[in-house]
């Protein structure tokens, strides 16, 4: 298999894994809240008022607590593990192909330079 074909397959797998193992998790519930209006465009004009009356800029407010983050990471790791273990099963591959229909509309992935350069190894 040539490098271009490997890149194409990797791009499809990345999209499928992102959709199935990350997007379709409790992250959807966190994202499902009411959207906020920003006239500035960067949310610098949006504030959250907590139970003690503290006015916190949206850009400084944590939007997920430690327990939610831990639960999200567990779910993502479990789904990534399941994806890899079950990928050779025809029924699982059929499910992945169904989800790829939606993920195909996404932007094509690009190499994350920071991650790609984090080790002493060469690609291709």
From TrEMBL:
Domain of life: Bacteria
Protein name per Swiss-Prot or TrEMBL: Uncharacterized protein
């Amino acid at each position: 298999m040539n490098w271009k074909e490997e890149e194409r397959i990797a791009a499809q797998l990345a999209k499928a894994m992102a959709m199935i193992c990350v997007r379709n998790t409790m992250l959807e519930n966190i994202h499902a809240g009411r959207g906020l209006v920003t006239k500035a465009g960067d949310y610098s004009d949006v504030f959250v008022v907590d139970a003690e009356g503290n006015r916190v800029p949206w850009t400084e407010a944590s939007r997920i607590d430690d327990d939610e983050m831990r639960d999200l990471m567990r779910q993502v790791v479990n789904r990534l593990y399941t994806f890899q273990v079950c990928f050779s099963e025809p029924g699982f591959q059929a499910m992945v192909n169904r989800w790829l229909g939606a993920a195909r509309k996404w932007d094509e992935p690009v190499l994350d330079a920071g991650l790609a350069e984090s080790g002493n190894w060469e690609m291709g």
